[in-house]
Amino acid sequence: MFDLSGKCALVTGASGGIGGEIARALHAQGATVALSGTREDPLKVLAADLGERAHVLPCDLSDPAAVDALPGRAVEAMGGLDILVNNAGITRDTLFMRLKDDDWQAVIDVNLTAAMRLCRGALRGMMKARWGRIVNITSVVGTTGNPGQANYCAAKAGLVGMSKSLAQEVAARGITVNCVAPGFIETAMTDKLTEEQKAGILGAVPMAAMGTPADIAAAVVYLASAEAGYVTGATLHVNGGMAMV
Amino acid sequence: MSDIADRVKKIVVEHLGVEEDKVTENASFIDDLGADSLDTVELVMAFEEEFGIEIPDDAAETIQTFGDAVKFIQEAS
Question: Against a cut of 0.95, is the pTM above it?
């Protein structure tokens, strides 16, 4: 099950902890992967580690022209684009009363608008192929909200709504659009939290442990597979029971 | 019938799965040929590829019938 041989997958934010693990997992199931991210060095290291069937496609997701060009580059590198994983995300956490326009816009641009552009760019080939898998990585806080993250939560909730609309439009074409919503996962992003913050969050997780990038990657592999063909417009929450929604 | 009309008709017949004689000059893709709005987008994509042209979104919206499509492509190519 979950064999992805012959499929071509583009993963954004592959230089990060979760994105890198998603790319690894898709690759392990047989997919060819295009690793995208802002920082080229970690992408190269990952590609070298994966060996064959791995391509490095650096891209600045805050640059609309570069984002629009990325699906085409992926097709050129891999010969197709069957699976799109919008994983890249940034944070500009601040209390709402101190929220600057720039903090808002930067997060919306990268976390939401870039995902829309990549979906749009990937759809043409998927429509023709009558097969496609789009997996958008959102977050538990897109559902629950989180103080200090109004911009991030808005973008993540926006991804869910966008995914559901798109899922309805393209369902009859064999294309599914789903979200994976991680809870508290060990990454560079969560490393920035203080011990006190971590303890507070873990107190709210019934499993009393942080998740790992591999937990998220497994959910993505499932949604990208042929076996998940009847699942669309769904959000798969992977959060240790932190929010049961 | 012109070569362009033949090629457009072939695409329409294949894509919408309709009988060839239903694809007449004034046949509306949506009202007469059973297309939904996404089908019309796909038809435009198919025309673009077949004829190597670009059909801007505002022009695509004016292409409602088989005749509209043939006329637009004749003028564009």
Answer: no
